[in-house]
Amino acid sequence: MKKKKKQKRSKKPGMSLHRLVKITSRSLSKAYEDFKNKQKIKKLKKINLKKREEARGITKEKKELKLREEQIKKEQEELRIKEEELKLKDEELRLKVKEQKLRDDEQKRKDEEEQRQEEEELRLKDEEQRRNEEEQRRNEEEQRRNEEELRLKAEEQRRKDQKEKRLKNKEQKLKDLEEQRRKDQEELRIKEEELRLKDEELRLKAEEQRLRDDEQRQGDEEEQRQKDEELRLKAEEQRQKDEELRLKAEEQRLRDDEQKQKDEKEQRRNEEEQKRKDEEEQRLKEWENKFDQEQKLKEEEEILKVERLKQKDEEEQRLKDQGGQKLKEELTSRLETFKTNKTKKN
């Protein structure tokens, strides 16, 4: 439109050819500059739009990646919590089984201890009954010895009475005999009787000594048996004390084992937690490295795109410059043609 207007103006009278050429050249240059500026603005807008779209795409990808990462972390945390709950349930079940076993062992030990105590009580009762029977036997033996002594005394008295009676009868018979012979025989009989009584007395003393020796021996045996029984009871009491100490030591050992297991469990849990944290940190580092590498690749790709666009712009600029040169040559040729035609008309 500008060109037509200028051509119309060139037709006005009084306008020189030089002015017309100058105006035409200026209009073409301005039109070309405006066209070039508009093209640059369009390209810059396209580049900015593309960059904004890529930035939005990168931001969106980052958000999606972050959401996926949070989802993965959440799922891993839920999985870890479930695994931890399963481990805790297994450990609780194992502890319950162990506790039940300990209770069963304790109940079994108590039952055995009660049974052993009952057996010991029965044995002590039997022992006491045996001692009572032994005491009763000793009393019966003592009573029997007393009855035997009484019987021996009665027998001795009876024998003495019989002897006195026989002596009296003999004396009465001997009175009828010769007085001297009676006296001699009486003296001899008395001596014999004294010897016999002495022998009988010695025999009774020996019997009494034997009974006393038997009684002493039985007393010594009973005393020794009581001492042995006391020693056995003391040994049994010491064994019970040793058993109580052993049971206390066993309980202490079980408590120590339980505390050790708790410490080991806590240590394993801490080690697993540390291992899990290390693995998460390692995965996070790997993801960060991967993300950095991807970001670096994207930046390199963006740089390459910018360089390609720059090269493309330069190529387009170069082509436009070549086109502008051709356009100038064409305009110059047209102006020369126009000038020649104008000259011919004039």
Walk me through the structure.
With 346 residues, the chain is mainly alpha-helical. The chain has one domain. It starts with a helix and ends with a helix. The N terminus is likely disordered.
The parts where pLDDT drops under 50 for at least 5 residues are 1-15
Mean pLDDT over the residues:
79
Could you give a short account of the major beta sheet?
none
Tell the overall outline: rod-shaped
**Distance between the amino and carboxyl termini:** 26 Å
Strand content: under 5%
Beta strand count? 0
Sequence of secondary-structure elements: HHH
Q: What number of structural domains do the residues give? A: 1
Helix count from the secondary structure assignment: 3
What is the share of helical residues? Answer: over 70%
Secondary-structure content class: mainly alpha
Radius of gyration over all CA atoms, rounded: 71 Å
Keywords:
346 residues; mainly alpha; rod-shaped
